[in-house]
């Protein structure tokens, strides 16, 4: 519904229509825009969920980014395809390193 769109998120906040937002970094466009969405979520006491998009690659950067930004949740889909498993494996590696 909100599609990581700041204008739509602001409208939803004003109407008290949501309690969390989904952030898809590759849909947002830039790191600074993602940081802006996170700041907006925190200021309005919304949880934020990092997600990937369908048709992703095996690159697991979004998992590292979600941990670094202290995302409340991640949404990578069922661990049934290589690109999804790569992201969950990266979260597991981060956990084993004692970072989270």
TrEMBL record:
Keywords: Glycolysis, Lyase, Secreted. InterPro entries: Enolase (IPR000941), Enolase-like_C_sf (IPR036849), Enolase_C (IPR020810). Pathway: Carbohydrate degradation; glycolysis; pyruvate from D-glyceraldehyde 3-phosphate: step 4/5. SMART domains: Enolase_C. SUPFAM superfamilies: Enolase C-terminal domain-like. Residues 1-100 form the Enolase C-terminal TIM barrel domain. Its EC number is 4.2.1.11. GO terms for molecular function: magnesium ion binding; phosphopyruvate hydratase activity. One of its GO terms (biological process) is glycolytic process. Gene3D superfamilies: Enolase-like C-terminal domain. GO terms for cellular component: phosphopyruvate hydratase complex. It holds the Pfam family Enolase_C. Belongs to the enolase family. This is Enolase. It comes from Candidatus Roizmanbacteria bacterium CG_4_9_14_0_8_um_filter_34_12.
């Amino acid at each position: 519904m909100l599609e990581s769109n700041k204008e739509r998120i602001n409208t939803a906040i004003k109407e008290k229509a949501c309690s969390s937002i989904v952030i898809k970094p590759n849909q947002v466009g830039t790191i600074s825009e993602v940081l802006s969405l996170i700041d907006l979520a925190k200021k309005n006491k919304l949880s934020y969920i990092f997600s990937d998009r369908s048709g992703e690659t095996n690159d697991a950067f979004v998992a590292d980014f979600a941990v670094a930004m202290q995302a409340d949740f991640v949404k990578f889909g069922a661990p049934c395809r290589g690109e999804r498993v790569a992201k969950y494996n990266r979260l597991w590696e981060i956990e084993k390193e004692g970072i989270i």
